[in-house]
Amino acid sequence: MRRGRGVSEDSERAGDADYAAFVERCWGPQLRVATLLVGDRYRAEELLQDSLVKLYPRWRRVSRGGNPDAYLRRMLVNGRISRWRRRRREQLVAEPPDRPGPSTPEQHDELHRALLALPRRQRAVVVLRHYADLSERDVAAALGCSVGTVKSQNSRALEKLRAQLATPNHEGANT
């Protein structure tokens, strides 16, 4: 890494130590958010690692800004959107696969499947609002939309989740 003007080797090491401590502290919570955003732990780890690599050169500025967790969450959402856009393009292969890819234990969870069935924007709102426990204002900032959009997307998503989860086994539990 190049040192700029006035950046000593000691302060650079201190910044690296701060960054390493941040990564260690945030890995678990941010990995859970990423997993819910992409639906697969392995792709979530890739997304989080890519975001952390991109964050490293910006670490001094971001850490002085006051909320590196929010910055990283925004990077995860943006990274997810970018991957979604790239994946949407058709990929030609010589022959179709003979069976689907490997499944993970999380994919068998009913709520997890219901989350995956939501449109990407609604899923992002539900994950950030209810799982990451962000306020509506923070979710709006993370997604780059208005608070009203967050409220309407959240309402529609919860309605869809309730409809998907309303099976005979679940209806008796709500009475």
From TrEMBL:
GO terms under biological process: DNA-templated transcription initiation
This protein's UniProt keywords: DNA-binding, DNA-directed RNA polymerase, Sigma factor, Transcription, Transcription regulation
InterPro entries for the chain: RNA_pol_sigma-70-like (IPR039425), RNA_pol_sigma-70_dom (IPR014284), RNA_pol_sigma-E_actinobac (IPR014325), RNA_pol_sigma70_r2 (IPR007627), RNA_pol_sigma70_r4_t2 (IPR013249), RNA_pol_sigma_r2 (IPR013325), RNA_pol_sigma_r3/r4-like (IPR013324), WH-like_DNA-bd_sf (IPR036388)
UniProt organism field: Actinocatenispora comari
Keyword Heme on entry: no
Any one of the GO CC terms: DNA-directed RNA polymerase complex
Domain RNA polymerase sigma-70 region: 32-89
Superkingdom to which the source organism belongs: Bacteria
Xref: Pfam families: Sigma70_r2, Sigma70_r4_2
MF GO annotations: DNA binding; sigma factor activity
Name this protein carries in UniProt: DNA-directed RNA polymerase sigma-70 factor
